[in-house]
Write a structure and sequence with these properties.
- The complex is a heterotrimer of chains A (469), B (476) and C (99).
- With 469 residues, chain A is α/β, with parallel strands linked by helices.
- An 11-stranded mixed sheet of chain A has the order 1-3-2-4-6-5-10-11-9-7-8, with helices on both faces.
- In chain A, helix 8 packs across helix 10 and helix 8 crosses helix 11.
- Chain A is globular, with a radius of gyration of 21 Å.
- Chain B is elongated.
- Chain B has 15 helices and 16 strands.
- Chain B has 476 residues and is α+β, with helices and mostly antiparallel strands.
- Chain B is 40% helix and 20% strand.
- Chain C is mainly alpha-helical and 99 residues long.
- Chain C contains 3 helices and 2 strands; from the N terminus they run H-H-H-E-E.
- Chain C has a two-stranded antiparallel ribbon.
- Classes of the chains: A alpha/beta (469), B alpha+beta (476), C mainly alpha (99).
- The interface between B and C is large, with 52 and 37 residues.
Amino acid sequence: MTAGTAGLRGSGAVIARETGARLTKAAPLNAVLHWSQELLDAEGARVDAMSVAGPLAAMPVALKDNIVTVEQPTTCASRILEGYLSPYNATVVDRLRAAGAMIAAKTNLDEFAMGSSTEHSAFGRVKHPLDPTRVPGGSSGGSAALVAAGVVPAALGSETGGSVRQPASFCGVVGVKPTYGRVSRYGLVAFGSSLDCVSVFGRTVDDAARVLSTISGPDPLDATTVDRPPMQVPTALPDLRGLTVGLPQEYFPADLDGGVATALRRTTEQIQALGGDARLVSLPNSVYAVPTYYIIAPAEAAANLARYDGVRYGKRRAGPDGDIRALYRTTRGEGFGEEVRRRILVGTYVLSAGYYDAYYKKAQQVRALIAEDFQQVFASGIDLLLTPTTPTPAFKAGEKTEDPVAMYLADIFVCSMSLAGLPAMNLPVGRSGGLPIGAQLVAPHFGEERMLAVAQLLERTMDSLAEVS
Amino acid sequence: MAWETVIGLEVHVQLRTRTKMFCGNRTTFGDPPNTNVCPVCLGLPGALPVPNAEAIRLAVRGALALDCTVHETSVFARKNYFYPDLPKGYQISQFDRPLATGGSVSFDSPDRGRMQVGITRLHVEEDAGKLLHDRFRGKTAVDLNRAGTPLAEIVSEPDLRSPAEARAYLTTLRQILVYAGVSECSMEEGSLRVDANLSIRPTGTSKLGTKTEVKNMNSFANVERALEAERARQIALVEAGHRVEQVTLLFNAATGQVKPTRSKEESHDYRYFPDPDLPPLVLTPAWIAEQRATLPELPEAKRVRLEAAHALSAQDARVITAEAGLAHYFESVVEAGADPKISANWVMGEVMTTYNETGAFPVPAHRLAELIGLVRDRVVSHQAAKRVYAELAQSPDQDPQAAATRLGLVQVSDQGALAGWVDEVLAAHPGEVTRFREGETKLMAFFVGQVMKRSKGKADPKGVQPVLQERLTQPA
Amino acid sequence: MTIGLDEVLHVAKLAELAVNESEILRLVDQMNRIVNYVAKLDEVPGDRTAEPFLAGPKAVTLREDVEVIVPLARPPSAIAPEFVEGFFLVPRHGAMEDQ
């Protein structure tokens, strides 16, 4: 779609129109929170007026609505930020636009990126593009659905504990989480700052890689970015000879969904057929990833979300007593949805006097153990890890909303890489009962290029639409 | 019962940087409200902090000047609480891994002589904004220009034993920090703030009593007053059989009273944790050593040196070194060739008066040295030199000798002229002449004064006396 | 470990969150489920440790002390719930009157 027209004079205007038509058609998915043809046309005109066509010339890109933009509202799918217009753009937005991309839409998400199904949005749930009774995954469900529906070739999401890879798996698209520190978080609304990564969805590995390459690289405005040059778009591999892939046994439990297990076995066989080696490995502390994550992320979130107090911006709700404490409590109590409030309470609890050591400090200890497991495996001659991205294909809407812990377990295979700051991605590798199944590749820190190159070869040589059962 | 007072101080000083702690807005004072603000110090969604190198450098120099150990690794932490002047709902500070610990300050206690106060820690943090309660009816106004200003917090051990001693420590602490260039340390402009912890215990016991925190003091004198008031309050409470509650009190300068804050603060559960937006602050030993090596001479060292090098009295040396600027000026005058003792008198006299009034040293040091030379050479009298000084303060480009000449202040030591004034004075005061001759010799000073007056200060007083002596001892 | 109603209310106060009477019991139940679940970490012996993990750079990069004016696409007045004569306004009450 973009490949043929990219860089042509006037192509921005045309693609803006076409994208607008697709956005209109995709409205039933409820994947988009803000878009207008007017802004899209302006983006098209801006791109057409650029003297040098950038690497993403006239590529329409959707942004998860927790990435701040001057032109469109940024709500994080929360009532508390309803109508909020940022006075500045996120670094990734500036980089995308400078590269010629057009900001097409702001997409729906679980409120403040907290959730695994995009059901926790103040503006309604997002529907799975292949089955409206199912969830697209989350929290970046809107971006995932939009790419899966073919509305845009690529979209930005954000990951704190799998929020791009998991919906990418459910929706059958490529989803790449970079190494922590590779992409600036300046302008990404913070959730769990030590985990948050702007991440990318693409219809193809190439689309995702080109976008990631554009937005990566150090940013003086984000002290947690690492001083390394931007990621390069990988060059194509002829085969996988010399590559050793590790299969961590903890990620292939006995009760793994049959379709998922079959698809992963086929992927392993394909790697071997391409000349690669596959070995069983162990990441023993990964079994603690979800509980560790559900201490650290809420603790950081409780502090990060303290700024939504109704004083400087956002929607204020005056309390019954009319004093400042009532203003805080009502603004926050009514402005945040249930899941966000739950996590703020948990995060406040685990940091509060008397509990810090038992929870937060303990979680830091286990986080270090989880990271060390990966380090040891990569030091033992393993180049990449292969796991299922999710234990099952997309589940039904409403299936897990009553039990927060059941919902958290949807992220069981994606949390540990977030805790360890590693690059990881979802690659669609087949379908089961018509629903996409994803394989997860995990690389050492700053190993994105090789990971993407391997994924690209698998993408080219496997039929991701094939039924596995 | 006799009571011992135990005081520890928490001092916040604003670091002398151009820009804020975590963003590039300037730190100037008095701009229109909410104009020196950006996404970071407004706490906008998505904004991230980046620490200011100069703030770290100044804090390290302050820590070294206070004899602290500066840690190679320290960690920024979030201190969580809600207040309308705190944009993010947390303050970025340091907690369990501060920049520096374990220092000390030597100072002269008015009660106990030379004493040392332990410095528990020095850490860096960001300031909050300003709240105005009297500008809008029923509303509090928030100005975030100050939000994010870099501060060093300096916590002392509870080593102080009286309010006067607390004040003396503060005076010394300020001297050191101003000398080291760390902070302006002006309580009036808010670049130095003091919170005090005070408890009492029966003299001779070692167990600490329940401490209270006293805030809202806007001068060192008021710190002393507030602590006097709080000490008296606690003693009265305990002697009446009550217990001291752990409260925060605010000092009211108008009434001289301390009053517990009305709100029962939520138990201070700040839920500190390392700020995930900021990697650890890592300083190399070489860099720390370089900061130590380039620290300027501190007041104590300077006092000792000036005392020894220039034979100044301990008191004079203390007065001169109290202000870094004053000491520097003194040394420049001496360096330009003036006698140290006389320079000291000038610096503690005219120079200090001008400095206290204007905060400046209008007369260049070498000009004052020249002026002191003119007095030494009896070109002008000491009195006349003060008038020349005042003239130079107005227009500092002048040469002192030329100014003295233009003002007609050059001394006359010519015998003939002196004799003329002497004869006129003696003729005008026949009664005093008689009394002198009858033995009332202390009238000599009177006659000298009269001659100076008649000569409009131009007579060289050293030349006048021999002429008077000669005339008065002549037979009538 | 179990979290009681009082504890949830205390934490809600610290977090400045109004909690509805109608949802409080459900919240206590869910908090307990979550806290019991994360207590799984108690299985990990305290002496099993690794080098502390740090996401991102090992040392912070400092910024030069140079004024940088970030142009705001819209002023504070455009985003504030209540903004008068250059100030954000909040109700005046309670603890703040002391200061």
